[in-house]
Amino acid sequence: GVVYSAARALVCSLCPHVGVTLLLLCCFQALQQVARRTIYSSARRQVDNKVPLKQKAFQEDNGMPVHLKGGSVDALLYRTTMALTILGAGYVVYELVKAAYPQKKD
């Protein structure tokens, strides 16, 4: 806007060949300074360490396979994977049988 035009006119009057580059460099440095202030002044959020709880749950001997101990999401993922595997294997067998017999010519 207006600030950009005024700054560009000032910089271009000082040195017409380096004007735009110098202006972009100044803008980049200002943006970098603002970003640095924002990153270093923000408070860190404390996160609880949940690893020991997860280790205890997965090492518990309750007869359940380890790939299903994660809950309902793991069960859904397992069932979906099994269904896709069976469908894929069936399709491969179908294509092999279809390729084994010659096509009828009309």
UniProtKB/TrEMBL annotation:
<dbReference type="GO" id="GO:0002082">
    <property type="term" value="P:regulation of oxidative phosphorylation"/>
</dbReference>
<keyword id="KW-0999">Mitochondrion inner membrane</keyword>
<feature type="transmembrane region" description="Helical">
    <location>
        <begin position="76"/>
        <end position="94"/>
    </location>
</feature>
<keyword id="KW-0809">Transit peptide</keyword>
<keyword id="KW-0496">Mitochondrion</keyword>
<dbReference type="GO" id="GO:0016491">
    <property type="term" value="F:oxidoreductase activity"/>
</dbReference>
<dbReference type="GO" id="GO:0045277">
    <property type="term" value="C:respiratory chain complex IV"/>
</dbReference>
<keyword id="KW-1133">Transmembrane helix</keyword>
<dbReference type="InterPro" id="IPR039297">
    <property type="entry name" value="COX7a"/>
</dbReference>
<dbReference type="InterPro" id="IPR003177">
    <property type="entry name" value="Cytc_oxidase_su7a_met"/>
</dbReference>
<comment type="pathway">
    <text>Energy metabolism; oxidative phosphorylation.</text>
</comment>
<protein>
    <recommendedName>
        <fullName>Cytochrome c oxidase subunit 7A2, mitochondrial</fullName>
    </recommendedName>
</protein>
<dbReference type="Pfam" id="PF02238">
    <property type="entry name" value="COX7a"/>
</dbReference>
<feature type="transmembrane region" description="Helical">
    <location>
        <begin position="6"/>
        <end position="31"/>
    </location>
</feature>
<keyword id="KW-0472">Membrane</keyword>
<dbReference type="InterPro" id="IPR036539">
    <property type="entry name" value="Cyt_c_oxidase_su7a_sf"/>
</dbReference>
<keyword id="KW-0007">Acetylation</keyword>
<keyword id="KW-0812">Transmembrane</keyword>
<dbReference type="GO" id="GO:0005743">
    <property type="term" value="C:mitochondrial inner membrane"/>
</dbReference>
<dbReference type="GO" id="GO:0006123">
    <property type="term" value="P:mitochondrial electron transport, cytochrome c to oxygen"/>
</dbReference>
<comment type="similarity">
    <text>Belongs to the cytochrome c oxidase VIIa family.</text>
</comment>
<keyword id="KW-0560">Oxidoreductase</keyword>
<dbReference type="GO" id="GO:0097250">
    <property type="term" value="P:mitochondrial respirasome assembly"/>
</dbReference>
